[in-house]
What we know:
single chain; mainly alpha; Four Helix Bundle (Hemerythrin (Met), subunit A); globular; DUF5062_sf
Amino acid sequence: MKKLDNEKELVKKALAVGGAYAEKRGAAQFEDGDSANERLEFIYRLLVRDKLIQPMPELQVSQQTIRHRLALWAKSLTPN
């Protein structure tokens, strides 16, 4: 897995866009006390459930791989 050049910024964008998607869909109401890792995992699992991203094998799911997968998703949302 090759790290993206601007992966941190893309993860922040994925948190914002994915959080807004989850709230608009009525699946979650994030609070200030929720950790970023919990939010990222919830967003990942929601996007997989809605078939917006490909699922990873459960043995490969970790915070690092979730961050990378969501960064790729956020990158795909950005027009070139």
